[in-house]
Give the backbone structure.
Amino acid sequence: MRIPCAYANWKMHKTLPEALEFIYEFVPALFRDVKEGDVGVTIFPPAPYIWPIRQELGDDSPIFIGSQNIYTEKEGAFTGELSGNILRSAGASHILVGHSERRHKLDESNELVGRKLDRVIRDRLFPVLCVGELLRDREAGRTKEVVKEQLEAAWTGQEVTGGAIIAYEPVWAIGTGKNAEPRDAQEMCEYIRTWIAEYFTPETAASIRILYGGSVNPENISQYARLPDVDGALVGGASLDPGSFAAIAKAIAHSGGAR
């Protein structure tokens, strides 16, 4: 059974007071219409806010907190970096790996993304592996080839379980106001699930959650959330407003429930 998910990537936005104000508004807005367990919600704030938000939510909250990044080593003299143990002790349970902004703005290679994924798995945290193509790749008909390369580079030599999450984000749709047509999103998420079934097992493919991301908002989320191989969304700009993100999470929860 796959519980649908709404994940919020705040990127480099909000002050700490603004982040806490978001929590004050978002939690009651969500749970007025949604029962705990109807949708899995994870918020990826700037790293300094992980602990304060976790404290504000409390240990019994069904909302998870994640980190936007992780370093490849367990510990050591790596100034400015964050290990899995540090992030877990601050309250993080999920880690974004391979987001397109880190791949293309900070030059993270497929090999580095694979090493980070390995670290997340070794540290027994939940990886959220991001994959997706550039516009030139899509126009050249290389979308599946690029995504396959990213998947293979990340998962080679790894074990994957139903606790892992893959987010398909066409790079040309992130923060641009453009979004993939639902049929295109379904085609790619189905392709990813088929790859998982062939590379690992059909049982793993049936249990792993695959999210769509790319200019998702309250107006268009329902057309994605109803797709058979889309288990929710990784949301950027629209997740910065508590009312907007609550509307997205509720739409996902009401899209058909667990698959």
Summary: The longest strand covers residues 126-131.
